[in-house]
Amino acid sequence: MNLNRLKEIREDRDLKQEDVAKAIGIRQQQYSEYERGVVLISIEKLNKLADYYNTSVDYLICRTDERKPYPKSILK
Question: Between the chain's N and C termini, which has fewer beta carbons within 10 Å?
């Protein structure tokens, strides 16, 4: 995963690691480890990050350069 994208999107929004970590329910140190590639991000946390940033998981993991999120599925 291109971890620079996590840092890039966070910095584009003038957020601190602590802000994002708190929003997704983890410690700042753990979020820092995500950005540095020390720890893999769970699917659950990727989904929370995508919702928080209003983008798609595909954007966060560099499968697309389109920031716009996908429409929500009616199936759940």
Answer: C
Residue 12 has pLDDT above 90, yes or no: yes
pTM: 0.84
The count of other CB atoms within 10 Å of the CB of residue 31 is 25
- pLDDT tens profile 41-69: 999 999 999 999 999 999 999 998 888 88
Q: Does 70 reside within a domain?
A: no
- Please work out, in degrees rounded to the nearest 5, the angle formed at the alpha carbon of residue 1 by the alpha carbons of 25 and 61: 70
CATH number of the domain within which 25 lies = 1.10.260.40
